[in-house]
Amino acid sequence: MKTKNFIGLILFIAVLLGVLIYWREYATRDQVVLYQVVLWQLGIWVPWILGFKILDKIIKSASESKFTIPLLLGTGLLLICLHFGWFFKFSSTYSPYLDLEGSKFGVYRYFFIFWTLVDIGLVWFIIDKLRATEKEELEPPLLFELTRGGNKYFCEPSQIHLLAAENYYTKLFTTEGVFVMRKPLKYFHDILPLNTFRKIHRSTIINVNYVSELSRGNDHSLEVIMKDGTRRRVSRSFIKEITLFFKDRTY
Predict the structure, then answer these.
(1) Which domains does the chain have, with CATH numbers?
(2) pTM for the predicted model, two decimal places
(3) Which of 61, 83, 98, 218 could bond to 106 as cystine, CB 3.0-4.6 Å?
(4) Using CA atoms, how far apart are residues 32 and 100, in angstroms rounded to an integer?
């Protein structure tokens, strides 16, 4: 979900609520002008753009953490409380209904129902949309277009066993054979899912679903043995990470 789309949503909510409130308070239309109510609502709801930015930052920085949902819900509740504080402060100064009969702090009691429901709805909507967008951005491409001998092959990430850097190219070992793409290994590292593809060396990425064995050497080295018998050395800087990764996946 892009920021400009959310800004459009906030402007729509502000204008809609302004019109509804003006229509509802028909007894005060001779004292209040519609554009004043709309501007008042804009002033109340625009701060939610900052709330959107805060939730977006949390999702991007903690998307892999098991505490993400509680953190988002807690932040959302805090933002609602802060918004209520802003609502009182802003309305008690700029509300066109200030000092009119039946109003207090420039608002009527039923306003709280609207504000609460919209605030809760916004928190749910923002979290849901941002998390969905984050997942879409992390998903790998549906297919890789590979060529060999003038023929084109379409390969899903799940068909890739191993990726190995070779100068400015990357070799892809797949269920359909070996292919070469003129892209650096980092390109694949950035788009392939981390729960399936792990880097074991600066020049090697493996699909963990095709690993049959981890073999330790006498010098504390580590090798990954793939199901097709291919052996690949694990760099010392990745040994601990790979060992813990497979330990967490096994019973």
Answers:
(1) 3-138 (no CATH), 144-249 (2.40.50.1020)
(2) 0.49
(3) 98
(4) 10
